[in-house]
Design a protein that fits this description.
Blueprint (H helix, E strand, L loop, with lengths): L1 H14 L48 E8 L5 E7 L4 E16 L5 E18 L5 E9 L2 E5 L31
Antiparallel strand pairs: 1-2, 2-3, 3-4, 4-5, 5-6
Length: 178
Amino acid sequence: MKLFFVVAFLAVAAAVPSSYKPEYTPSYPASNYPAPKYPAPAYPAPAYPTPSYNKDNKYVDITITSQSDERNLDGSSQWSYAQSDYTTREESQVQKKMQGVTYDSYGKESYGEVLGNTNKGSSYWVSPEGQKFTLTWTADDAGFQPKGDHLPVPPVHEYELPVAPVHIPFNGKGYKIY
């Protein structure tokens, strides 16, 4: 019965003519403003020369010669690329459970097991002077550890650090306090 009333109401609403007239368009009077006259520029337009390339630069057109990108469902990935100027880079990443600090939605800090990434990679490139560089790195829970012959090395101390003298206190009666 309710369905009958709904159908009847929709039929009557569809049969009633609409008073909406979409053909109304507002009319505005045309403007009588004169076209603006801009003054001629006081200086000539600059003439730029066509770009020229250094003929001694042997790496003008560097292109990618190989590229790979692999993403796995377990969160691990590896990617690499090589360019026509012999620059290469490769990196791999694995998800690992580590001990670390976590924060809940209220900002409370707790120490526990967290998921983190361990990355390993290497890069090779040749400088404009012709020097060859190789950089390898590992980034894990021990931090970022880069290795390369071009990286600075911390100085090695070959002397012994001075040791502070040991003071053994006595109580007022001449006995050592341990």
